[in-house]
DNA sequence: TCATTTGCTACATTTTTGATAGCAAAACTA
DNA sequence: TAGTTTTGCTATCAAAAATGTAGCAAATGA
């Protein structure tokens, strides 16, 4: 699975539009979860493993590799950390948290949930 | 693969926090791409297939099913459309588009790209 | 009525992910 | 400084998810 980057064809989009590369990258298992978690502060490999309860070390490692190649994550003395780009991305993701809690979750509470 | 919903344990998070359910849902192949595309207007199944160049009808169908169960997409006479929730979500996703284009893509242009 | 189009299922193959074991290097500890 | 932990990560195999292709039944159009 090759790392999606802007300007390169990615899963399902040959145009290489940056947003498509980003959606491909973030659409892989745990990618957003890792970014989400790292915003709290640096984490070691094992801490990330614990956080992502069911991730395998293989997947965690490839995902970290992709995020590094895409300049969202890097290593520091304290462990893995978000880069500046990573933090910016988190800040774009962040509003989804409150929306999910305050708006989206409500839509499941209506009585007689269809389907 | 069961549909992630707020309040239910999802891939790697037993707490059922809405954001975790959302990240699980959106982290599946093509989920964000479908939302992204549908914001342009209603699409038929075949149009979505064309848009997501390499998606298989099987996957498209399950993904649409999940998005419907989660109140982001519904069917209309004109085809599949975003619900109000779906449009709200798109609007949260939208800033990622310009960030990817104007900020993130730049990070790949530096001379001597490492790695 | 006959040909298209549409939404979707079936099924075999490939790709991705998970689970588990475990190793080499670094960091403690006694 | 020898022994124990911890840490980052690889290897391997099984399970799950996605793809590719064919094709069918219902709706639409000519």
Number of helices of chain A: 5
Low-confidence stretches of chain A: 111-115
CATH hierarchy class name of chain A: Mainly Alpha
- Average pLDDT taken over every residue of chain A: 90
Which architecture name of chain A does CATH use?
Orthogonal Bundle
Give the number of domains of chain A: 1
CATH superfamily of chain A: Winged helix-like DNA-binding domain superfamily/Winged helix DNA-binding domain
**Helicity level of chain A:** 40-55%
**Main β-sheet of chain A, in a few words?**
2 strands, antiparallel
What percentage of amino acids of chain A are in beta strands? 5-15%
Greatest chain-chain contact: A-B, 47 and 47 residues
The fold-level CATH name of chain A is Arc Repressor Mutant, subunit A
Secondary structure class of chain A reads mainly alpha
Assembly level: homodimer
Describe this protein's structure.
The structure is a homodimer of 115-residue chains. The first copy, chain A, is mostly helical and 115 residues long. The first copy, chain A, has one domain: Orthogonal Bundle (Arc Repressor Mutant, subunit A), CATH 1.10.10.10. Chain A is built from 5 helices and 2 strands. In chain A, strands 1-2 form a two-stranded antiparallel sheet. Chain A starts with 17 loop residues before the first helix and ends in an 11-residue tail after the last helix. The C terminus of chain A is likely disordered. The interface between A and B is large, with 47 and 47 residues. Chain B binds a DNA duplex (30 and 30 nucleotides) through helix 4.
